[in-house]
């Protein structure tokens, strides 16, 4: 079949920093699917009994897994806040070029603050925390 | 092989009838995940996560199994829809695309079934 014309996509558009926010929304979303896997593993271990739960917690609390948990938390914070931005667009708000750039900065700020607060509360103060 | 163009084959048949279903499901599931995921994050922060008794009692008490089940259903549904769009955008060869879509749907279903089974098992343990 003859090559058909394509609408513009990622490799054709000129670089804009708002594009990075769009890529990151997808990447964080796909990344979190693995996080759901970890969550289901944790739930299954809790359902299986105390010994299995202890093993799962030891595994998830290890150094590398802590980094993964932090990365999933970061993905959640970003995807959540940027998702609200997308819902606003879907409702017809903030579609202007300048508005979209401004909301991108707001998203980054809120996501970083949210991540800092959530990471502190989840990881730091409690002796028994993961 | 047909000499008709794909456009010719599609014209005159009317709409498939589900044009906005995917789009709308993704937005509605996103809206539902706003309270559900925040609820779960707050719960994780408040729970002593290494304490088996505390965690399993929390998972079995009151409405928690209901919200947890809903969280699992809506999360895996939202994930399936989202990853599907990513696959459709970047995987163009028909075979690998179909395979990736099936793996995506299947994987999210397995996650859902396992998660619901775990929640039910904990919720019904006290009742048994």
Any idea what the CATH superfamily of chain A is called?
Fumarate reductase/succinate dehydrogenase, transmembrane subunit
Number of helices of chain B: 5
Number of domains of chain B: 1
**How many individual domains of chain A?**
1
What does the main sheet of chain B amount to?
Answer: none
CATH class category label of chain A: Mainly Alpha
In round numbers, the mean pLDDT of chain B is 92
- The proportion of residues in beta strands of chain B is under 5%
Radius of gyration of chain B equals 20 Å
Average predicted local confidence, pLDDT of chain A: 90
**Highest-level CATH class of chain B:** Mainly Alpha
Rounded to the nearest angstrom, the distance between the terminal CA atoms of chain A is 56 Å
What does this structure look like?
- The complex is a heterodimer of chains A (130) and B (128).
- With 130 residues, chain A is an all-alpha fold.
- Chain A has a single domain (19-123), classed as 3 helical TM bundles of succinate and fumarate reductases (Up-down Bundle).
- Chain A is built from four helices and no strands.
- Chain A has helices at residues 17-48, 50-60, 63-90, 97-123.
- In chain A, helix 1 (17-48) packs antiparallel against helix 2 (50-60).
- Chain A is elongated.
- The termini of chain A are far apart.
- The mean pLDDT of chain A is 90.
- Chain B contains five helices and no strands.
- Chain B has 128 residues and is mainly α.
- In chain B, 20% of the residues are buried.
- Chain B has a single domain, classed as 3 helical TM bundles of succinate and fumarate reductases (Up-down Bundle), CATH 1.20.1300.10.
- The mean pLDDT of chain B is 92.
- Chain B is elongated.
- The interface between A and B is medium-sized, with 34 and 35 residues.
């Amino acid at each position: 079949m003859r090559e058909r014309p394509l609408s513009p996509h990622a490799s054709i558009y000129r670089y804009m920093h708002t594009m990075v926010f769009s890529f990151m929304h997808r990447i964080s979303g796909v990344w979190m699917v693995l996080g759901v896997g970890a969550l289901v593993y944790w739930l299954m271990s809790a359902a299986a009994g105390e010994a299995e739960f202890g093993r799962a917690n030891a595994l998830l609390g290890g150094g590398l897994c802590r980094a993964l948990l932090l990365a999933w938390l970061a993905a959640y914070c970003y995807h959540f806040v940027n998702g609200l931005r997308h819902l606003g667009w879907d409702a017809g708000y903030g579609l202007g070029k300048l508005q979209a750039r401004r909301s991108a900065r707001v998203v980054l700020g809120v996501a970083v603050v949210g991540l800092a607060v959530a990471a502190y509360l989840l990881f730091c103060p409690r002796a028994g925390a993961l | 092989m047909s000499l008709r163009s794909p456009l010719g084959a599609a014209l005159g048949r009317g709409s498939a009838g589900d044009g906005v279903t995917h789009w709308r499901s993704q937005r509605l599931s996103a809206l539902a995940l706003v309270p559900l995921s925040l609820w779960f994050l707050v719960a994780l922060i408040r729970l002593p996560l290494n304490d088996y008794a505390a965690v399993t009692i929390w998972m079995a008490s009151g409405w928690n199994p209901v919200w947890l089940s809903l969280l699992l259903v809506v999360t895996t549904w939202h994930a399936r829809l989202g990853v599907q769009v990513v696959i459709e955008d970047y995987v163009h060869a028909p075979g690998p695309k179909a395979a990736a879509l099936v793996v995506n749907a299947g994987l999210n279903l397995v996650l859902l079934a396992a998660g619901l089974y775990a929640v039910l098992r904990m919720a019904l343990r006290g009742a048994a």
